[in-house]
Structure formats: structure tokens, C-alpha cells
Specification:
CATH topology of the largest domain: Alpha-Beta Plaits
Strand content: 15-25%
Number of strands: 12
Largest sheet: 5 strands, mixed
Order of helices and strands: EHEEHHEHEEHHEHEHHHHHEHEEHEH
CATH superfamily of the largest domain: Reverse transcriptase/Diguanylate cyclase domain
Helix content: 25-40%
Strand order of the largest sheet: 5-6-1-7-8
Distance between the termini: 61 Å
Shape: globular
Structural class: alpha+beta
CATH architecture of the largest domain: 2-Layer Sandwich
Number of helices: 15
Length: 416
């Protein structure tokens, strides 16, 4: 289509960074350029976080077990994830997006939807905005690239951004939507995961065209009215979600697959304390508070449990994150098994400056005291680059031995 002629129906951009974690590593260490690079942990229980495009040629992809990635490309270079660095670059990128529109909806650290309906005249149309974003991201980050999808709605914009990676820009012609969608496999419909894909293929629905031809009645009988309507709408390129409405829940989380199974107690507490500090710092730096706390536990047998708790007031302090995660873990019956994986997350995010209702019994005071401490730690890290200051709860004391030769017990006091 003619990319020199703008269409006012192009109101949404999906901007998706290219192999973001790997690209940041190459940015910081140019000697990695052009080499198969894997971000993750190469141990027997490690999982690939992301891979450079050179590594993807070997079939390596995110969420792949590290052992399989090593088998496919023994010569790949591995780097451990650096969450803080990725967050720093992510904030730069989001600020670039805000140069073009105040209405953005981040989906993760490396992608976002942009509502450009109010910016079309200001910047000369959607295509100029797309080109401008790519140019400014490259300039501001010192060389990172972003792929852009431009379309009338979120679903089509996200689909388009993946069609010309890396460093591409795809524009969806509003008058030829079905021509674009029909040949695509059903897994390209947003929200259709492996299980749904399998269910659709079981009844002979392999492409979006197949799904449209079968009719909505069969879909309703098979998947229920709501899911069927959603599939039907997206298969026709219809997506009426606005910004901040019905999009993926914003969340911040961290998880770890342990080299050896751990037990509930000191070992799980150590992870939960560290995870709570990391999540709390991310919440503060991104100016969020969390209403819901989530815990994920995977046992030796691969049984996986999730638990969550919604707070009366949104929180940002590490102490509450830690203690809530600890309480949720206590609710899970481990049945004598070890813990293979632990994850802690914060969801239901609200702006940090949103007014908070005071409580009657002083919980607020404790939380605010914790926030003061954490903000001082943040300031020290900012001023010194990497601070030597740590919370006492995160420092593992050396084992002490009594004169009688037995280990003396040290009671650890939980922080308020």
C-alpha cells in the first residue's frame, strides 16, 4: 500500500523492542555483536529468558530449558539477566514514547501500546509518528531498534509489529484486514495459547479463515459464549478495547528455579526477602503501588501452585511484600516435597500518588517507616552507583559455634 498517504483510521501503535535483553547486552558489550547470545542461566534447571537473533537461528527461544538451548547451540554465549539495567533502559524508551503521545499502555519492559489519535495532526500522521519513534529510540538508547505496528486497533497493531522483525514497521490497511488475517494460523489470535490452539486444531480449525467459515455457533458450543465471541471478533479484526480498559493486568514479578530443591523455612525466606526488595524497588522507581500480591510455587514433582492476596490499601513496602509472600507459602501443603521454583509478584498496580485511606490501628505508620528506609537505600544506590548499605534481614550472618561445639541459634527479628 502507499505509505505516503496517511489514513485517519490508524489510531494505535504497538512498539516492540527487538530481542531487548540481548540487545542491551550487546549495547553494553559490542564484542557480542553478531554472535549467538542467550540471556538466562545455563545450569541443568535454567530457563532461557531471551536470545539474540543469531541464537534464534538455532531454534532457541524464550522459556526453553537451558539444557535444550545448550544442545542446539553449544557455542552460544550466555549472560545472566540484569533486571536493573533493563529497567533503566526501559524507562528511557517509555519516555521516548511519551514524546509522541501522553497515552501509552506498557505491556512489559520492552513493549507498549500508544494511542496516537490525538497526535496525528501534530506530527503529520501515523507513519511519521512510527518513523519518529524508531529514530528517537535509536538515538536515545545509543543503537537499540524497535519494531512498529500501526493499525486501527490494539489486536491488529500488536499482530503487525511482529510481521517485520527486527527493526521493521508494518502498517495494516483498514480496507484489507481480512486479506491479512485469513491465511494466518489460529495461534496468531491474541490470547490463543498452546492449549486453545490444540483445541481449535482438534476440530479442524488451523487458520483464521477456517475459524471464520465454521461459524460462531460451533465456537459457542465448544468454548462458551464469551470466549467464542472474542475469537469471532478478533478473527474479523474487531477489537474495541480502549486504553486502560481490558488490557493485560500490569504487574511486576520475579521468580527463580533453584539449582537444588529447597525447603520451606530459611531458604525460602531468603528468596522471598530478596524478591520483595527487588519488587518494592521497581514499584517505587516506576511510581506504582500494588493492590494484589501473588506467589507461585513449583514442587519437585512439577506440581505448580499459585496463591494471591488483595490488600485493603495498595502498598509499596518490602516488609509487607515479604510477610504476605511468607504467609501465602504457609498455606500450601508441600506433602514432603522440595521446592523447585518460587516466584513473587505484585499486581493491580495503581499510581503511587493515588490517595490512600488511613487505617485505624497503625499499620500505616509501620509501612511508611519502611518506605522511608527503602527510599534512603534507593538514594544511596543512586548517589554511589552500588551501595554497600543493605537491610540486616538480607545479610546472612556467619555460623557461630558455642564453646561446647554445638551451633548456637540466632533468632532473626522480622522488620516492620
Amino acid at each position: 500500500m502507499d505509505l505516503e498517504t496517511d489514513d485517519p483510521r490508524w489510531k494505535v501503535i504497538h512498539a516492540d523492542m527487538d530481542a531487548f535483553f540481548a540487545a542491551v547486552e550487546v549495547l553494553d558489550d559490542p564484542s557480542l555483536k553478531g554472535k549467538p547470545l542467550v540471556i538466562g542461566y545455563p545450569g541443568p534447571r535454567g530457563v532461557v529468558s531471551t536470545a539474540s537473533y543469531e541464537a534464534r537461528k538455532f531454534g532457541i527461544h524464550s522459556a526453553m530449558p537451558s539444557t535444550e538451548a545448550l544442545r542446539r547451540c553449544p557455542d552460544a554465549i550466555w549472560r545472566s539477566p540484569r533486571g536493573r539495567r533493563y529497567g533503566e533502559v526501559s524507562r528511557m524508551i517509555m519516555e521516548v514514547f511519551r514524546e509522541f503521545t501522553p497515552t501509552i499502555e506498557p505491556l512489559s519492559v520492552d513493549e507498549a501500546f500508544l494511542d496516537i489519535s490525538g497526535s496525528l495532526k501534530l506530527f503529520g500522521g501515523a507513519i511519521c509518528i512510527g518513523k519518529g519513534i524508531r529514530k528517537r529510540v535509536f538515538e536515545e538508547t545509543g543503537g537499540l531498534t524497535v519494531s512498529i505496528g500501526i493499525a486501527p486497533n490494539k489486536f491488529l497493531a500488536k499482530l503487525a509489529s511482529d510481521l517485520d522483525k527486527p527493526d521493521g514497521m508494518t502498517v495494516v490497511d483498514p480496507d484489507r484486514i481480512q486479506e491479512l488475517l485469513d491465511p494466518l494460523p489460529v495461534k496468531k489470535i491474541w490470547g490463543v495459547g498452546p492449549r486453545m490452539t490444540h483445541s481449535l486444531q482438534e476440530i479442524g480449525l488451523n487458520t483464521i479463515s477456517d475459524l471464520r467459515r465454521v461459524g460462531i455457533e460451533l465456537l459457542q458450543r465448544r468454548f462458551g459464549e464469551n470466549s467464542a465471541q472474542r475469537l469471532w471478533n478478533l478473527a474479523h479484526g474487531q477489537d474495541d478495547r480502549g486504553f486502560g480498559e481490558g488490557g493485560p493486568t500490569k504487574s511486576i514479578s520475579t521468580e527463580n528455579t533453584f539449582t537444588k530443591d529447597i525447603s520451606r523455612g530459611t531458604e525460602s525466606d531468603q528468596f522471598l526477602r530478596k524478591a520483595a526488595e527487588e519488587i518494592a524497588e521497581s514499584l517505587r522507581r516506576q511510581e506504582w503501588r500494588a493492590r494484589t500480591l501473588r506467589l507461585k510455587v513449583r514442587l519437585s514433582s512439577f506440581k505448580t501452585y499459585t496463591r494471591s492476596k488483595t490488600m485493603d490499601n495498595p502498598i509499596v513496602d518490602a516488609a509487607t511484600l515479604y510477610q504476605t509472600g511468607r504467609n501465602l507459602l504457609e498455606e500450601i501443603e508441600l506433602e514432603g516435597e522440595g521446592i523447585r521454583l518460587l516466584g513473587l509478584g505484585a499486581a493491580g498496580l495503581v499510581p503511587a500518588d493515588e490517595p490512600i485511606q488511613n487505617t485505624l490501628f497503625g499499620e500505616d505508620t509501620a509501612n511508611r517507616k519502611d518506605e522511608k528506609v527503602t527510599r534512603l537505600l534507593d538514594q544511596a544506590k543512586d548517589d554511589q552507583g552500588s551501595s554497600l548499605l543493605k537491610r540486616g534481614s538480607l545479610v546472612s550472618p556467619p555460623p557461630e559455634t558455642s564453646r561446647g561445639g554445638r551451633h548456637s541459634a540466632t533468632k532473626e527479628k522480622d522488620e516492620a
